[in-house]
Design a protein that fits this description.
The complex is a heterodimer of chains A (458) and B (312).
Chain A (H helix, E strand, L loop, with lengths): L1 H15 L2 H27 L4 E7 L14 E5 L4 H11 L3 E5 L9 E6 L5 H29 L7 H8 L4 E7 L5 E3 L4 H34 L2 H5 L4 H41 L6 H12 L8 H7 L4 H10 L3 H29 L7 H16 L1 H6 L4 H8 L4 H8 L6 H29 L9 H8 L2
Parallel strand pairs in A: 1-2, 1-3, 4-5
Antiparallel strand pairs in A: 3-4, 5-6
Helix pairs in contact in A: 1-8, 2-8, 2-11, 4-5, 6-8, 6-12, 6-13, 6-16, 8-12, 9-11, 12-16, 12-17, 15-16
Chain B lengths: L1 E12 L2 E12 L3 E5 L6 H8 L7 E6 L2 E2 L8 E4 L11 H11 L4 H14 L15 H13 L5 E5 L7 H16 L3 E5 L3 H7 L2 E6 L2 E7 H7 L4 E7 L5 H4 L5 E8 L2 E7 L6 H8 L5 E6 L4 H11 L6 E2 L1
Parallel strand pairs in B: 3-8, 3-9, 6-7, 7-8, 10-15
Antiparallel strand pairs in B: 1-2, 1-4, 4-5, 9-10, 11-13, 11-14, 12-13
The chains are: A alpha/beta (458), B alpha/beta (312).
Chain lengths: 458, 312
């Protein structure tokens, strides 16, 4: 046990001390912060007037959309088909369509736009609609209570029953007049981002393990070391050591990114009319997204939105459950990495040089790449069959699950996926240890799959 | 008293027999030569001693009892294929490897400092291994092998890559280790160094031990009663003055002297050869031809097809 710690320490320290680690640690957060800050910056700059045409088939929202400093609403009476056809000529920024609903209360709307509709337009619309629908529900509830006096008045029950989530789907109208769903929603962005990040991490640190093993083999230091420690200890020490480097990098990224974003936000928001600090505005915006809170009065809502382009994105971000996201990321990175890391170690043990790794890399990289290729299916239908099976199959689970998690995944599915992943990790490690143990002492031999199969059964 | 022994150790690799019932015993405090042509199974045997691989059959004994996993702390191994981490500094690396051999951090540092000073390597401590020459790297490797002062040292082709000066320094150091009480297994193809260093040998060929025992006894057993003589020219033939039982193997001229190698029958002695020569020629030199380890090695390995096993 003492020796495996020595090995972990060496693997960790030699990598963390490298210049490339430092460079990555600094560049990563800058890049991530830029992804967050640039749209914010654009939002603060983009103060030009946006006109939104509204077709309200329900009639509930007539005159409810109050103009703000940079959003103007006008109501159309034409049908949706012709409005869409005329949309590009009209010069409107977006077209809001609230379809008639079977049940009395509408809960969704479609927003057509030429480009991705800016997130503050969407959330303004969503807020106005939520407010209106919740008012309607409350009114109905109060009427019920008046007629049915037996039930005691329970404020919490009432509030819970009026709680409403409005779905605003955004659809892009392209030049050809085609429509495609656009991905402005924060969960899509986050899912994509987390999926790509975990893919990148597994690949990067997995191949570091492989290169480390090949290095020890070509250096011929391996025989000296395994005369003091068991091959399994050396392999696990390396995998764990490199994994800790990955975790360190990730946590540094999270901390630095939050740092940079917080500093940047306070600079941006101080330019706006709100006198609150960045944190306060995030908290307030988060509160607005939280359906448990009472809706703000009409005038306050529209006022608040006048100069808040910037903090709107943070509001959206703060609606995300970051502890869960980060927790899930750490778990799926860790076990996904451990599983892949042991496979990478086995490959490293079986070959003489990096040039020989190709044929064995293929079966390992295919599931990883496939889960990235399938990403848009997971996003379009995060709770569908395809997404489910991909997030349960261990080799694709880390990426697929991370893409799905921002959309909300039933606990049993997460638990199932995690359980299978842990089992898969144990299985691959057992397999890898056998291949590794034999492979590291073999030199100058082109290894085939048949050979590997033989090693497995030694 | 033997420090290490093996009894009927066999090992098979996918259909190919690497070791076949190998029994060897290594006396304590000896330098034991493990010899054999390439692919004979020496490295496999050494790996089994180091518990890198396990034998299929057979038993191994250390200090009179069965070999235990913890015995690796009492073994120092310098493999034939050896290297170091190129990007690590010499000091860090030596500390790491010494600690893997069970030394505490403090003890490792103390001993390394002593040995680095003794080998005049102190200035290398903070250098990266890739900055060192091959010979310097070999020195570091040797030092790491002995740093935990093991009872059994195994050197696989230790002299390859050393220049003559460092090779002789290494040789002295190996002898010094033996004098301090360590037992040494020394695997090599270089028969000259075997003659110089080893007191016992085992010759492995085709997975089997074909010859084993003290070097002196082996040489005695392989003596062929052959003598080399030099004498001044005389008009007659050498054949005519020797008894008919004596055979002249070779005759040649060396400047103004004549030379010959002569084998005499086992029942006669060197005095008989001299007495038949003296009346006819002026003898300049006379010596018995002792077979070199090299000759014995070649003879045993080429004759090994007859499956003769000689245990002395």
């Amino acid at each position: 046990m003492h020796k495996i710690i020595l090995i972990i320490k060496r693997e960790y320290l030699t990598r963390v001390r490298k210049k490339s680690f430092l460079v990555m640690t600094i560049l990563g957060p800058l890049l991530m912060a830029a992804i967050v800050i640039v749209p914010v910056y654009m939002a603060t700059r983009g103060n030009e007037l946006k006109t939104v045409a509204v077709i309200d088939q329900t009639g509930f929202f007539f005159e409810k959309f109050k103009d703000t400093d940079n959003i103007k609403f006008h109501y159309l009476v034409s049908d949706i088909a012709s409005a869409k056809a005329n949309f590009r000529k009209s010069g409107d920024y977006a077209l809001l369509f609230i379809p008639r609903t079977e049940v009395s209360i509408p809960t969704n709307a479609i927003l057509y736009g030429e480009n991705n509709v800016s997130i503050n337009v969407i959330s303004y619309i969503r807020n106005v609609m939520t407010k209106k629908v919740e008012d309607m529900k409350l009114e109905a509830k109060l009427k019920d209570l008046q007629t049915d006096k037996k039930n005691p008045l329970n404020v919490e029950d009432i509030l819970r029953s009026v709680k409403t989530v409005i779905d605003v789907n955004t659809i892009k109208i392209t030049d050809e007049g085609k429509e495609e769903k656009s991905y402005t929603e924060i969960s899509m962005v986050l899912g994509t981002f987390a999926g790509i990040l975990i893919y990148f991490f597994i690949f990067m640190f997995g191949s570091q393990v492989m290169r480390g093993v090949i290095e020890e083999k070509t250096n011929r230091i391996i025989e000296v070391i395994i005369s003091s420690v068991k091959p399994f200890e050396l392999m696990m020490g390396k995998i764990v050591g490199v994994g800790l480097v990955g975790l360190t990098q990730f946590l540094l990224w999270v901390i630095l990114t939050f740092g940079i974003v917080t500093v940047a936000t306070s600079t941006f928001t101080s330019k706006g009319s709100t006198k609150h600090s960045a944190e306060q505005s995030i908290v307030q915006n988060a509160a607005r997204y939280n359906p448990d809170n009472l809706p703000l009065p009409d005038s306050a809502t529209s006022k608040k939105y006048q100069n808040e382009g910037a903090s709107e994105i943070f509001a959206a971000l703060s609606s995300v459950n970051f502890p869960v996201m980060i927790g899930a990321f750490v778990f799926f990175f860790l076990f996904g990495y451990l599983m892949y890391g042991s496979l990478f170690a086995a490959i490293g043990g079986a070959v003489d040089s990096e040039a020989d790794t190709q044929q064995f890399m293929l079966p390992i990289t295919v599931p990883l790449i496939l889960s990235i290729v399938m990403m848009q299916y997971f996003i379009q239908d995060p709770s569908g069959q395809v997404a489910f099976w991909f997030s349960v199959f261990p080799l694709t689970a880390p990426v697929a699950m991370m893409i799905r998690i921002p959309f909300g995944v039933p606990y049993w599915q997460v638990a199932l996926s995690m359980g299978i992943l842990i089992l898969a990790f144990l299985g691959t490690t057992w397999m890898a240890a056998k291949i590794y143990r034999t492979g590291i002492l073999m030199y100058g031999k082109k290894v085939s799959y048949r050979e590997l199969w033989k090693w497995l059964r030694y | 008293m033997e420090l290490f022994s093996s009894l009927n150790v066999s090992k098979q690799f996918s259909g190919h027999k690497a070791l076949d019932k190998v029994s060897i015993s290594i006396p304590e405090g000896s330098i034991f030569g493990l010899l054999g042509p390439n692919g004979a199974g020496k490295t496999t045997f050494i790996r089994i001693i180091n518990q890198i691989i396990a034998p299929d059959e057979g038993q191994l004994f250390y200090n009179g009892r069965e070999l235990k996993p913890n015995d690796i702390y009492n073994i120092g191994y310098l493999p034939e294929e050896r290297g170091l981490y190129k990007k690590m500094t010499v000091g860090e690396q030596s500390m790491y490897l010494a600690q893997l051999k069970g030394l505490s951090k403090v003890e490792a540092h103390k001993r390394l400092t002593y040995w680095f000073a003794r080998f005049e390597m102190s200035s290398w401590w903070n250098k990266k291994v890739e900055e060192l020459s091959k010979g310097m790297q070999q020195k570091v490797q040797f030092l790491i092998t002995i740093i935990h002062e093991p009872g059994l040292l195994i050197f696989d082709e230790p002299f390859s890559g050393f220049d003559p000066i460092n090779a002789s320094m290494l040789k002295d150091e190996i002898i010094a280790q033996r004098d301090k009480g360590a037992t040494i297994i020394f695997s090599t193809h270089n028969m000259a160094s075997v003659e110089e260093l080893c007191d016992h040998i085992a010759l492995i060929n085709n997975a089997r031990v074909v010859l084993a025992g003290p070097v002196r006894d082996i040489k005695k057993a392989y003596k062929t009663s052959t003598y080399e003589i030099s004498f001044n020219s005389f008009p007659g033939e050498l054949n005519d003055i020797l008894p008919s039982a004596f055979t002249i193997i070779k005759e040649w001229n060396d400047h103004d002297l004549r030379m010959a190698t002569i084998r005499i029958p086992a029942d006669s002695g060197p005095n008989q050869l001299i007495s038949s020569l003296l009346p006819n020629v002026t003898l300049h030199s006379f010596s018995e031809l002792i077979p070199s380890m090299n000759d014995i090695f070649i003879r045993v390995v080429t004759e090994n097809k007859n499956e003769t096993v000689l245990q002395l």
